[in-house]
Amino acid sequence: MKKLLFVSAVLVCIMGIAFAETGVKQKRPLPYEFGRVIINNYSEGAHVAPVVFDHWLHRAKFTCRICHVDIGFAMKAEETDITAADNLNGYYCGSCHNGKIAFPSCSKNFGASNSESCDRCHSLDKTVVKKYDFRDFVKGWPQERLGNRVDWEKAEQQGAIDPVDFIEGVSIKREKLVDQKDFELGAEVEGMPDIIFSHQKHTVWNGCELCHPEIFIGIKKGLTKYSMVEIYDGKYCGVCHGSVAFPLLDCQRCHTQKVQ
Amino acid sequence: MRNIIRFTVIFLLFLGFSFGNCLVGNFSSVYAQYDWKQEYTDVCAKTQNAMILSSEELKSYIDRCDTLLDHINKLEGAAAATEKKVYTKRVKMCRDLYDFALKYKEEKE
User: Fold this and answer.
1) What gap in Å lies between CA A130 and CA A208, rounded to an integer?
2) Whether B40 contacts B68, CB under 8 Å
3) Whole-model pTM?
4) Where are the alpha helices (DSSP H) in A89-248?
5) What span, in angstroms and rounded, lies between the C-alpha atoms of A186 and A194?
6) Is residue B52 within 8 angstroms of chain A, CB to CB?
7) H helices within A22-163, ranges in order?
8) Coil, strand, or helix at residue A51?
9) pLDDT in tens, A45-63
10) Which of A85, A210, A219 sits opposite B104 (nearest CB)?
11) How far apart are CA A75 and CA A78, in angstroms?
């Protein structure tokens, strides 16, 4: 009887841990999955598979500003409200996927005859042979520990990638950016190195309007208090560094200032 | 002689009204042909240097963005729904940046 009670108690504990909502380690995305966005505003309603968008392929070819400022994609999945009509009118995905810059997107007549073309994007839970294999694509590029395991900054410096920052008919011709100064952000936790934030590194890919004021609204230094809890929750730096840019787990990438 | 003069004056007035209407019509159509896409390109091309623009320039760009947004809201046609959605976001982004830069300047002063 005692043995039975003991075994039952152990089983209950194991089941409790297994089904616990908190304290269970979340699965870390694989390198080719990191930055993946699933778009399903209208796909299932139209009886097609939701879209699987991989950031790694697009960020190797274009700056963040092209898509998130010039074309106008939102910074969160499914907030852009893209429809097939939008794409066919030459906006959003259709800005490039028009048969000229890249393969055409969407069709007024979806059916078996063109399903292979549609499956290139509408591929969630489908076995689709992609044109670009991730491992072959990033072969020989500088590596890092986390995220896509690609050091995108070094990849650009070394010439492995050359992201386009202007597309005729899509982008606006802008004047050269005036250099923005780096500045220091003090860490709240004692003993944690301070952060040197580089405007230059961020604006070369993002421009100004991608971050200000939607993500960073503070107009005076020190007015906004950034906490790691909020950042991990997808606010501030976490908008990008929780999904597409190098992950927040890589603390020393930001906390670089020596502790005094 | 007087009749000739009167007739000439009336005739010239008639001509003046006829061509004047045409000219006014042309001016109206010029003002009506607000090339909003070109305006968007002109206004939002300055975002890179928003932080070095003067307060007056920033206020001017904000006003132009607001006018542009009003115009975009009234678009009609087949692709209007898409254009409204796309350009509203694009113009709002650059308007908000100019507003941010203006508030930063005012706070600094």
Assistant:
1) 34
2) yes
3) 0.81
4) 115-118, 134-137, 152-157, 199-206, 228-232, 238-241
5) 5
6) yes
7) 55-59, 64-65, 84-88, 115-118, 134-137, 152-157
8) strand
9) 989 999 999 999 999 999 9
10) A219
11) 9
